Each structure stands twice: as structure tokens, then as C-alpha cells.
């Protein structure tokens, strides 16, 4: 009986401990899942349910005790809230009453405040209306002008590109390589998109004065101040060179009149057309005067061209706004002679430098690109077939270098002449091109080839160079026409060729003469050796003189070099000139005072010399191909005077010289006086070739008699 209560107490203590564990876990927020799982696994879910119920009851007791403890405080709080609500209702009523009173009192004040704000706004607008027009009229005029001139430059570039495309299309159409395609390219000029400046403050100021009834006073004020501003803008700064300030100067003027144009069109009567025209007339006169004065002091063609280009853009810009710019452009035309004088002088210095630094040797071209830039670019090729490289050109570096200078001159000339008063400026460009080629290039080349100290090889190369410069004249003319917008076909006619081409042809001939003179001068050094000849030698020689070998060797070198670089007509002239000079020198040798007498042996040696020359002349005339061109007038014919003289002196019947028929046939190149002077020196003494009576034969005797007859007849004739 006593054991059962003990067991029950043990179980209750165990349950109390488990209840404490469950309560702790719930209080800590732990997961009860493992505890529930264990209870079911042990088969004791009732005990767990009992523990949970015990915990619930325990919590209910705690809640009830807590509510009993704070019940009085809660009741007091509710009472206090009810008191606050009553006070809030009273405060709301007071605020509503005060707000109504404030609205009644502040209504008039708000009206006054609105009037004050409006007054401040009017004051601000008036201040801006006074301040901003002054700011727009000078500080931004330069920017406006520069922007407008820049736009004009873009339009001009577009027009030039369009003309170039049109020209190429026309050329292709003419040559049959393509069909001309016409297109219309129209671009509307949106002034507002290009020139963004705001005249609203000016309009506002004018409107205010109109409202005040003082618009006339404002017009006078505006016009007076603008005139003062214009006079200030037209003054040239003496501290800054014109070449550094002309763009700012002209842009300021352009901006000024662009603004005035818009004011005239949009201000509703602030400016009149007569006022703008008066200001423009004053400006044109002043600017033209300034340009002429400043141009007279410029000493650089580049500066003149740059200034001119900007001035033409100024004209194009203001012409869009209806301003007449002819007088300004005429000032440019009045200075074109000075510009070209400066340009010609610059080119002359460049050409002098090129020629003075030339090697006077044939140009060696090693690659295709060099051939195109130095030969094809100026149409100097002698064949349409591309040569093998390295290619030895028949001209020296001087030719393409001078061609580049001329091409640059053409570009500079056309750039200055274009966009002026006269739209057809091709004739002027051609005139200045002729002047460059004739008065500069031609003179420098001639001066060089005719100067002292120049060698034969140099003169020969210069003569060859002139030939190619003459050929380049066609390219120069076509290039000028192309830049001027003239169809190339119109300048391809023979009558359209440059005068300089004919002048260069004449200079080429003069260069050939100078070359012949140099060759002859060198020949004189060899021919001077004839003074060492024994003109009365008793020894009969069967060979030519030693000096003649030197002459032939020199002629061979001259012909070999000339054949490489000179055209055949030039080679023919040089050859004829040299051989004629030798012939004249041979005849002159018999006439010289140093030769008192000569005999038949001297005549025989001279005959051998002449035969050597004649053989050389025949060989060269045939081997160079000249015999195919010049059917009459061979190199041998250049020795005709010397040959006829030797033939006469060697003739058995020299008296036949006086027979008109025989003379015309065999001695037509001989002069009576020269023949008489020469045969007077012919030795016929006993120690001569005709010998003494013991050696004299019938043939010699008859020859002497015939010679005596000739002397007598020539003496009687003279």
C-alpha cells in the first residue's frame, strides 16, 4: 500500500521535470520536432500532450496575473487619451479661426507682392534689353562673320568638286568611254542653322520704346551707335601686320552686315534699306582703299593669294545677303599683275636653283612610281610602252623639277584669277603662263647654256632638256585649261598652242648653236696643231696628220653622246656645224699669214686628212639613220669647200676653175678671192714638187702652166 504513493510521486517529479524542459524549449523558441518524434517512438504521446497542456495552463495563469497587475494603468491611459482628444478639438477650432483672420488680413498684401514680383520681372527684362544688344552688335560679330565665311568656303569646295566631276564626265563622253549623266544637286541655305545669334533682346528693347512712344529716338540711337561701331571696325591696327589681322578685320565686317541684314528684315522698321545701303557704300570704299594700300606693301605671293582667297570668300558670303561686292573684287584684279610679278620672281629663283644644282646627266629612274611622277605626269614619255627599269631618261633632273615649278605656278595663277570679277580668266592664265615660260624659264636656260665655262656635255644635256620642256608645253596648257574649267579638247588645236612653245623651239635651236660653238671651240684646240705642219716638206706622205686622229676621236665621242640624248635633227645640226667648221678651218689654214708658201706634199697630206674625215662622216651619217631622213645634204657635203679646194690644188688643169660650166659642177663652193690668195702661195720653185729641169716632166710642166694661167685670170678678174 505504501509503495504506490511513492511510485506516483516519482512519476510526478519526472513529469514536472519534463514539463520544465518543454516549457524551456518553447520559451527559447527551439524546435519541438525531435521531442515529438521521440515521444511517438517511445509510445508515450499522451504524456507529451499532457506536458503541453500543463504549459498552456501555466501561461494562462501568467497572462491573467499580468493583466490584473496593469489594469489600473490601462484605465488611466484611456482616460488621458480622452482628455487629449477634447483639447485637440479645441485647438483645431482655434486654428481655423486664426487662419480665416490671416487670410482676410494677407489678401491685400499678396496683391502688393504680386505687383512687386511683376515689377522685378520688368526691371530684369529692361536690364537685359539694354545690356544684350550691345553685347550682340560687336563681341559676336566676328564669330558670326567667321562662321558665315567658313560656310561659304564649304559651298565653294562643293561646287569645285561638282565641276570637276562634270568635266571628267564630259571628257569621258567625248572620248566615247562613257555616257554623260546629269544630276541636280540642290542645297537650301538655312540661315538659322548656320548662323545662330539671338536678336530677341534688341526686338524687346525696340518694342519697349515703341510702347513708350520713343521708337524714333531709339532708331536714331541705334543707327548712331552702329555707325560709330562700323567706323571703329574699319580701322586697321597699326600694331599688327595686315597679313596677321586681315581675317579678323574682314570677318568683323562680314558679321556686322549680316547682323544688319537680319535687323533690316526682321525688326519691323528699326532700320531702313537706305541706311544699310549708305553704310555698305562707305564700307566698300574704305575696304577697297585699305586692300589696295596693304597689297602695295606685300612682298610675298603666298600672302597675296591667301588674302585674296579670304576676300573672295567675303564677297561670296555677303553676295548671298544682297550686297554688291564688285568694287572690292576689282581691287583684287588691280593687284593681279603685282601678284604674278612676285610669283614669277619666286619661280625664277626656284628655277635658277634647280638648274644651277643640276648634274647635267641623264636621269636614272629605278621604279615605276618614279617614272609616273617624273615622266608620265608631264607627258614626257617618248613611247607609250612602259620601259624596263632601271630606265635612263634622255633628260636630266632639271626637266621634271622645272615642270613641277611650272605646274605649281599654274595652280597659284588660277587660284588668284578665279572667283574674281571676270568669270572667263583662262586667257589671263594663259598669258601669265607664257610669261613664265618665255621671260623666266627660257631666259634662265638660255643664259645658262650661253654662259662661260659650260662644258660641251652640259650644253648638250641642256639642249636635250629644252626639247622636252617644249614637249611639256602641251601639258602645261591643258593643265591650265583644266583648272580653269575649260574643256581640254578646246586647247588641243594647233592654233591654241602656247607662244612659249615656239619660243622654246627657237631657244632650242639657239642652244644647238651654242653647243656647236662649244664643239667648234674644242675642235679649234686640235686644229691649232696645223701650225706645226711643214707646209713645204719634200717628203711625200701616204698617211694623214696626227692631229686629224685627235679630231676624229673627239668627234666620235661627241656623236656617241649626242645620239643618246639629242633628237636626230639636233644631231644633224651638231654634226654639220662641226664638219663645216673643220672644212672652214682647213681652208683658213691655207690663207693664214703664218703659211707663206706650201707645196704639193702639203696638199697631199691635207687630202689624206680630208679623206679620213669624209669616211667618218659617211659612216656616221649612215649608222645614225640620218641617211634615211636627209636624202640630200649628207655630212660629207659639209666638207665640200675643203674638198673642192684640195681637188683644185691637185688638179692637172686648175685653169678649168675659170670655166663656168666646170666651176659650177666641181668648184661652186669656192670663192675667187680665196682661191687667188691660196694659189699665190703654191710653191713652184726648183726645190718643189715639180723639181728642177732634170725632174720636170711634161705632166708637171703642163700643170704648172695651167696654174699660171689660173693665177693670171684670177688676177685680171680681181
From TrEMBL:
Residues 329-681 form the Exocyst complex subunit EXOC6/Sec15 C-terminal domain. Component of the exocyst complex involved in the docking of exocytic vesicles with fusion sites on the plasma membrane during regulated or polarized secretion. Involved in polarized cell growth and organ morphogenesis. During cytokinesis, involved in cell plate initiation, cell plate maturation and formation of new primary cell wall. InterPro entries: EXOC6/Sec15, EXOC6/Sec15_C, EXOC6/Sec15_C_dom1, EXOC6_Sec15_N, EXOC6PINT-1/Sec15/Tip20_C_dom2. One of its GO terms (cellular component) is exocyst. Gene3D superfamilies: Dsl1p vesicle tethering complex, Tip20p subunit, domain D, Exocyst complex subunit Sec15 C-terminal domain, N-terminal subdomain. GO terms for biological process: acceptance of pollen; Golgi to plasma membrane transport; intracellular protein transport; pollen germination; pollen tube growth; vesicle tethering involved in exocytosis. It comes from Hibiscus syriacus (Rose of Sharon). Pfam families: EXOC6_Sec15_N, Sec15_C. PANTHER family: EXOCYST COMPLEX COMPONENT 6, SEC15. Keywords: Coiled coil, Cytoplasm, Exocytosis, Transport. It is found in: Cytoplasm, Cytosol. This is Exocyst complex component. Residues 51-132 form the Exocyst complex component EXOC6/Sec15 N-terminal domain. Belongs to the SEC15 family.
Amino acid at each position: 500500500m505504501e509503495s504506490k504513493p511513492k511510485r506516483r510521486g516519482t512519476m510526478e517529479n519526472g513529469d514536472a521535470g519534463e514539463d520544465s524542459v518543454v516549457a524551456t524549449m518553447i520559451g527559447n523558441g527551439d524546435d519541438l520536432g525531435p521531442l515529438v518524434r521521440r515521444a511517438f517512438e517511445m509510445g508515450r504521446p499522451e504524456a507529451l500532450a499532457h506536458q503541453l497542456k500543463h504549459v498552456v495552463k501555466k501561461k494562462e495563469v501568467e497572462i491573467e496575473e499580468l493583466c490584473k497587475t496593469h489594469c489600473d494603468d490601462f484605465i488611466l491611459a484611456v482616460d488621458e487619451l480622452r482628455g487629449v482628444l477634447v483639447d485637440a478639438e479645441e485647438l483645431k477650432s482655434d486654428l481655423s479661426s486664426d487662419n480665416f483672420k490671416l487670410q482676410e488680413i494677407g489678401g491685400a498684401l499678396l496683391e502688393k507682392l504680386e505687383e512687386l514680383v511683376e515689377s522685378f520681372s520688368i526691371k530684369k527684362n529692361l536690364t537685359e534689353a539694354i545690356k544684350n544688344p550691345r553685347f550682340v552688335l560687336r563681341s559676336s560679330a566676328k564669330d558670326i562673320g567667321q562662321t558665315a565665311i567658313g560656310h561659304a568656303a564649304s559651298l565653294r569646295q562643293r561646287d569645285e568638286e561638282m565641276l570637276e566631276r562634270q568635266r571628267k564626265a564630259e571628257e569621258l563622253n567625248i572620248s566615247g568611254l562613257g555616257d554623260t549623266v546629269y544630276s541636280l544637286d540642290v542645297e537650301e541655305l538655312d540661315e538659322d542653322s548656320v548662323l545662330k545669334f539671338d536678336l530677341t533682346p534688341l526686338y524687346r528693347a525696340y518694342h519697349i520704346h515703341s510702347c513708350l512712344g520713343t521708337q524714333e529716338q531709339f532708331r536714331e540711337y541705334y543707327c548712331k551707335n552702329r555707325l560709330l561701331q562700323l567706323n571703329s571696325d574699319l580701322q586697321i591696327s597699326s600694331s599688327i601686320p595686315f597679313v596677321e589681322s586681315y581675317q579678323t578685320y574682314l570677318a568683323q565686317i562680314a558679321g556686322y552686315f549680316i547682323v544688319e541684314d537680319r535687323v533690316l528684315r526682321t525688326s519691323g522698321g528699326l532700320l531702313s534699306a537706305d541706311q544699310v545701303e549708305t553704310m555698305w557704300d562707305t564700307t566698300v570704299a574704305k575696304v577697297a582703299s585699305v586692300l589696295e594700300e596693304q597689297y602695295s606693301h606685300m612682298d610675298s605671293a603666298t600672302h597675296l593669294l591667301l588674302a585674296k582667297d579670304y576676300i573672295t570668300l567675303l564677297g561670296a558670303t555677303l553676295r548671298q545677303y544682297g550686297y554688291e561686292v564688285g568694287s572690292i573684287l576689282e581691287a583684287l584684279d588691280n593687284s593681279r599683275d603685282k601678284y604674278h610679278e612676285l610669283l614669277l620672281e619666286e619661280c625664277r629663283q626656284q628655277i635658277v636653283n634647280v638648274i644651277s644644282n643640276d648634274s647635267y646627266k641623264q636621269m636614272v629612274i629605278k621604279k615605276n612610281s618614279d617614272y609616273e611622277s617624273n615622266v608620265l605626269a608631264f607627258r614626257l614619255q617618248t613611247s607609250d610602252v612602259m620601259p624596263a627599269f632601271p630606265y635612263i631618261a634622255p633628260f636630266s633632273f632639271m626637266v621634271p623639277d622645272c615642270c613641277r615649278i611650272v605646274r605649281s605656278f599654274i595652280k597659284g595663277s588660277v587660284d588668284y584669277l578665279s572667283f574674281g570679277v571676270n568669270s572667263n580668266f583662262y586667257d589671263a592664265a594663259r598669258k601669265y603662263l607664257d610669261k613664265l615660260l618665255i621671260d623666266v624659264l627660257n631666259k634662265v636656260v638660255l643664259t645658262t647654256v650661253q654662259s662661260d665655262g659650260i662644258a660641251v656635255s652640259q650644253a648638250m644635256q641642256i639642249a636635250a632638256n629644252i626639247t622636252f620642256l617644249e614637249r611639256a608645253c602641251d601639258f602645261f596648257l591643258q593643265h591650265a585649261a583644266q583648272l580653269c574649267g575649260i574643256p581640254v579638247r578646246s586647247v588641243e588645236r594647233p592654233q591654241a598652242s602656247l607662244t612659249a612653245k615656239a619660243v622654246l623651239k627657237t631657244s632650242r635651236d639657239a642652244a644647238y648653236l651654242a653647243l656647236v660653238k662649244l664643239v667648234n671651240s674644242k675642235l679649234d684646240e686640235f686644229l691649232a696643231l696645223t701650225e706645226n705642219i711643214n707646209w713645204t716638206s719634200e717628203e711625200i706622205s701616204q698617211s694623214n696628220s696626227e692631229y686629224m686622229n685627235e679630231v676624229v676621236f673627239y668627234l666620235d665621242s661627241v656623236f656617241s653622246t649626242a645620239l643618246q640624248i639629242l633628237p636626230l635633227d639636233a644631231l644633224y645640226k651638231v654634226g654639220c656645224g662641226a664638219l663645216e667648221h673643220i672644212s672652214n678651218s682647213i681652208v683658213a689654214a691655207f690663207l693664214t699669214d703664218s703659211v707663206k708658201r706650201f707645196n704639193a706634199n702639203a696638199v697631199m697630206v691635207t687630202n689624206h686628212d680630208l679623206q679620213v674625215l669624209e669616211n667618218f662622216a659617211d659612216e656616221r651619217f649612215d649608222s645614225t639613220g640620218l641617211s634615211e631622213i636627209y636624202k640630200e645634204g649628207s655630212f660629207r657635203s659639209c666638207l665640200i669647200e675643203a674638198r673642192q679646194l684640195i681637188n683644185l690644188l691637185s688638179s692637172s688643169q686648175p685653169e678649168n676653175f675659170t670655166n663656168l660650166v666646170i666651176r659650177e659642177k666641181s668648184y661652186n663652193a669656192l670663192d675667187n678671192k680665196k682661191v687667188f690668195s691660196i694659189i699665190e702661195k703654191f710653191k713652184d720653185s726648183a726645190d718643189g714638187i715639180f723639181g728642177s729641169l732634170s725632174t720636170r716632166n711634161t705632166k708637171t710642166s703642163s700643170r704648172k702652166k695651167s696654174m699660171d694661167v689660173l693665177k693670171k685670170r684670177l688676177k685680171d678678174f680681181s
